[in-house]
Amino acid sequence: IPATAPELKFNWNLFPESARAIRFVAQKRAVFNAVLGISWFWFFGGVVTAQLPNYTKLYLGGDASVEILVLTLFSVGVGIGSLLCEKLSGHKVEIGLVPLGAFGMTLFGLLLYFAQHAPAAQRGVHWLAFLTAPGHWWIALDLTLLGLFAGFFIVPLFALVQSRTEPHHLSRVIAGNNIINAIFLVAAAVFGLALLHSGLTIPQLFLATALLNAAVTLWIFLLVPEFLMRFVDWMLISALYRVRAEGLRNIPDEGPALLVCNHVSYMDALIIMGSVRRPVRFVMYHRIFRIPVLSFVFRTAKAIPIAGAKEDPALLARAFERIDAALAEGELVCVFPEGSLSADGEIAAFRPGVEKILARRPVPVVPLALRGLWASMWSRRDSRLRRARLPRRFRARIGLIAGTPVDGATTDAADLEQCVRGLRGAAA
What we know:
About 60% of the residues lie in helices and about 10% in strands. By secondary structure, the chain is of the alpha/beta class. The chain starts with 13 loop residues before the first helix and ends with a helix.
């Protein structure tokens, strides 16, 4: 591919150039926090892998072959976890896997301490004898799963850095990431040496690192609630549905765009949020912000509350101002132009509010269509019949289809309605 910044001049003085690379990392809050998460991964991994040789010899009683086995299990676990990210994320950047990875790293780091914290009675055990000894299979599994969840943790963070960085800055952001990673690796070495020098054993060092991992990841998730929000969204959607997404490449990777979609169930926004690679600002009825769990998700996603003209005209006016401001900043905004959930499973007439948005800022419009959700327990089908909201089946197949972008300057509500109807009909 061609150079994205061919005019760039490199300063061979490593100190100002390193500082410049770190400044590029810090320009975007989400990218900087992801880099801190990546660096913490190297800190955690640096502490563990640096002590595995001595841990193997002193506490597992293994020879050099067991040392190779232990390092291999941890590395293969990271590889398996990295590959599973592709499957579990639905072939997109899914940062909701980061909290899952952090939880697993803490859990199996703690279990590594409890699995073997006393010195081995026998030394020089071969790898096969080690695996067949009572209880040692659990240590092997623990190391593998520790690596697997580390893969869940690291891959989405790397993908986030690459997807949210401008192409002409990417190489310098990766350089800054590597510099910060190296600082954390040095800190890991100092941390391990200091705790061992203070009298801690290697298993106690693993325990302290696992507890520190819990504290650091909690701090990261409080600092960046988007990670936890995406995790909640990913868990809900993965538990209830199997989403078949088509045409999502029609949604631009950069710049403003308005998404318009039919409104079938209370889960519509969560499904779109979990399927689209970029963050989406949803325009939501203000009472939804009072619902537990959904309130956290949509507030964290910076959803825009809206109300009817008769119910709260001031809130309606503020909503249009916030929509325009979001589009002006190059964000994706999603609206449901029907104005309410479908009462019969069919698409209702699109209201003129979408035309008001485009008259003020004629950005590209991407039509979306959801199908398969009318039979869901979260549609109005059940509530009309006053049945208990019980799922007919878990992991139901549903579809999300994105059409070709439409010029916002020349379209209207009726045209967009026909686009969405066409997408839904073609999918059906």
